[in-house]
Amino acid sequence: MSEKKTCPEHVAIILDGNGRWARQRGHERTYGHGFGAANVKKIISAAGEMGIKVVTLYAFSTENWKRPKTEVQFLMKLFSKYLVEQLRDLVKDNVQLHIIGDCSVLPAKLRQEIAVCESDTRNNDGLILNVAINYGGRQEILRAVKSIAGEVRDGQLSVEDITMDTVTGHLYPSSSMDVDLMIRTGGESRISNFLLWQVSYGELYFTPTLWPDFTAEEFRKAVEWFSHRDRRYGGLSEESKK
């Protein structure tokens, strides 16, 4: 099977390079995180204009707790501030917001802001924006496996009936759609435990551009690159069959 899409339906982005961007300008890493947060709206607006259905942003991984305490505290406050400041725009722009990841260990104020944002945008039927906070791909799959095992234990599901769709159905619902295009800014060429199940056949786009410098035009370049990809899903392209 071979398929070409002019526009991806689900785009995942690893927002990398905020700290280095700040250091290059003689500032602390937190300075870059502030500019990186401001850049999100520009990219989401561009995605909406292009007709992309789902955007999932990797904002804070389960491993990011290892960073300096001051940086982690700054990020938690930044997430909360961003949600409050952007809520009106999200509603106005018909964006539906979801936070994916284990929110149970996040600060209480941030959890409250998350609940308000998700509630106030739940009826929006435009672009779905997932922000991954305290998220890990392996942890998401483990969570799904435990949930499925519990259903088998309780007699709600038989082992024979477990399929690929069963696993997909136990992932975070808003981001369970297969990823068409994964973008990583900042020059690294790895996916860092992000949406491991969903990205199985996704196209991977790595750019040296640091996240605060990743403009809407750079985003459009990535989508244009995707539109020329021949997605074979293990099969042969029409050219190869000749």
TrEMBL record:
Active-site residues, Swiss-Prot/TrEMBL: 16, 64
EC number: 2.5.1.-
Enzyme class at the top of the EC tree: transferase
UniProt: substrate binding residues: 17-21, 29, 33, 61-63, 65, 67, 184, 190-192
Residues the record lists as binding Mg(2+): 16, 203
Gene Ontology molecular function: any one: magnesium ion binding
Subunit structure of this chain's protein: Homodimer.
Family: Belongs to the UPP synthase family.
Keyword set, alphabetical order: Magnesium, Metal-binding, Transferase
Protein name: Isoprenyl transferase
Main function: Catalyzes the condensation of isopentenyl diphosphate (IPP) with allylic pyrophosphates generating different type of terpenoids.
Superkingdom of source: Bacteria
Cofactor(s) the record lists: Mg(2+)
Cofactor note: Binds 2 magnesium ions per subunit.
Annotated GO biological process: polyprenol biosynthetic process
